[in-house]
Design goal:
This protein has 505 residues and is an all-alpha fold. It has a domain of 216 residues. It has 18 helices and no strands.
Length: 505
């Protein structure tokens, strides 16, 4: 098995592990920390995360140009580029330290209205630790990018898997002893630095790379900056969308609201992972189709085909969460986090269209036409931020979530669909006709599930488990009979048939 196939398999293992850790470890952490402490922890982490934008998309550039130089057999150019970026990242690390210290000295000014003196003291300690973590990460991150460019995916994924397993075990141990949020940050910092050091050793010993410091190639820097700009803009957009909520709520409402909102964000990330893991395998195919000058109809057909598959998976999760989500959150996180149910539904509903149309991103990337989407998302993310501030003052975390959801619906639900139809020549009316056929059963089951939830308490473990099992069986049978076409049925049956065939030998 080659590095790419093995790396892809291990990547799904990582997604599965992260989901499992999120489901199993999070409730333990929530109960050990308490709502206030968890909110504080999430708030500080989200604030420091803004400093990761200082990467400016250079990590992707290192991967691209290292692969390019390797293909051309230009080793010396590689070594000089590594040296140049190491200097650049050291400088960025110093800027990160400055930004972190700026936040450290302004904690009181930002949050004194919503936090106690003890909370503020812990926030300052965590900010210092996370600033140190980030300042070290920047210069050493170059080695992770080099490993990616050299396509040593197995090593990367194995290190990630070991890190997830071991660090989670240590975090559970630390919490069981009685330590709180600050200790969690210390553990995470130690494991991050250790991973960076392992990458460094691997690059020097295994890949035999060299770091050569010479003069700066300013034309090359300019070329890379142009390439990195749209990546950087998308990173800003993502941070504004999913990272500002905690900050806004922390400044306006306090750590309790942050805690509830953060639980919903965690569930939102799991929801997105299911979709992105499906579409990630499509980019090479889409790129190949575009390179071969495939017709608009063929691209449209692929967009519709994947959209229907995505709709089946995502509507199953959405319908199931609407039915069982409140009971699940009460059992998983605790009664204090019940408002996260509504917030999560807002996220799931508003994300539904972007996620079932993820193939559109692959098409835009293959055609090198990401400019419109990037600019659009940047604009609506700014509008979302303004609306978050306004609505959070009156409706707390629910208002904040609504602002994010509304921006997504307008941006992806309306504007991007018009763009796909008018500029990319994708048959959007046909797309929604086909997806609409998939959504009939989930809609009926969602309404039925909401009625059932009025009479059955799904906050009881046995009721929840039995409910999910029965719901899943009925959902699959009805969709199999009335919604899925032969291609989609074969897509499900194919891997099962192969597995059964192999098991005979």
């Amino acid at each position: 098995m080659n590095q790419i196939k093995a790396g892809a398999i291990l990547n799904y293992v990582i997604i599965g592990l992260n989901t499992l850790v999120g489901l199993a470890y999070t409730p333990y952490m929530l109960r050990c920390l308490g709502q206030n402490e968890y909110g504080l922890y999430s708030l500080v982490a989200s604030i420091i995360a803004y400093l990761t934008l200082l990467d400016f998309g250079f990590g992707n550039a290192i991967v691209r140009y290292t692969a390019k130089y390797r293909a051309e057999g230009k080793k010396q150019e590689q070594w000089e580029m590594f040296g140049m970026f190491l200097v650049v990242y050291c400088f960025i690390g110093l800027i990160a330290i400055g930004g972190g210290l700026g936040l450290y000295f302004n904690v009181d000014a930002l949050f004194d209205r919503t936090m106690t003196a003890s909370d503020l003291r812990q926030a300052r300690i965590m900010m210092l630790l996370l600033t140190f973590n980030l300042s070290v990460t920047f210069p050493f991150s170059i080695f992770g990018s080099i490993i990616t460019a050299y396509e040593n995916f197995v090593f990367q994924r194995v290190v990630s898997i070991l890190r997830i397993i071991i660090s989670t075990g240590v975090l559970i141990l630390v919490l069981s002893i009685g330590f709180k949020a600050v200790a969690l940050v210390v553990v995470q910092t130690v494991f991050n630095v250790l991973t960076l050091f392992i990458n460094l050793i691997y690059c020097l010993k295994k890949l035999k790379i060299h770091i050569v410091f010479g003069k700066f190639d300013w034309p090359f820097i300019k070329e890379i900056s142009v390439y990195s700009f749209w990546i950087f803009l998308n990173a800003i957009m993502d941070k504004i969308y999913w990272g500002t909520g905690q900050f806004v709520l922390g400044a306006i409402c306090g750590t309790m609201a942050v805690a509830v909102f953060s639980v919903a964000i965690l569930l939102e990330q799991m929801y997105m992972n299911f979709s992105t893991s499906i579409v990630s395998v499509l980019l090479p195919k889409v790129t190949g189709m575009v390179a071969l000058s495939t017709t608009h109809k063929e691209i449209s057909d692929l967009f519709i085909k994947t959209g229907r598959i995505q709709s089946f998976v995502m509507s199953f999760i959405l319908s199931g969460f609407i039915t069982f989500g409140l009971g699940f959150i009460n059992l998983w996180a605790g009664d204090n986090y019940a408002p996260a149910y509504i917030i999560t539904i807002i996220f799931y509903v508003s994300l539904f269209t972007p996620l079932i149309q993820n193939t559109g991103i692959a098409i835009l990337q293959a055609r090198n036409q990401m400019k419109f989407r990037s600019i659009l998302y940047f604009i609506i993310s700014i509008c979302s931020l303004i609306l978050q501030i306004v609505l959070s003052k009156h409706y707390a975390e629910i208002g904040c979530a609504f602002a994010i959801g509304l921006a997504l619906v307008i941006g992806q639900g309306f504007i991007m669909n018009i763009y796909y139809y008018k500029k990319q020549k994708i048959d959007i009316p046909k797309f929604w006709r086909e997806v609409g056929k998939i959504l009939i059963i989930p809609t009926i089951m969602t309404i039925s599930g909401l009625i059932l939830a009025k009479y059955v308490n799904f906050a009881v473990v046995l009721n929840l488990i039995l409910g999910i099992i029965v719901f899943s069986i009925i959902f699959i049978i009805l969709n199999w009979k009335f919604s899925l076409n032969n291609y989609e049925r074969n897509l499900i049956l194919g891997p099962i048939a192969k597995l059964l065939h192999k098991s005979k030998f």
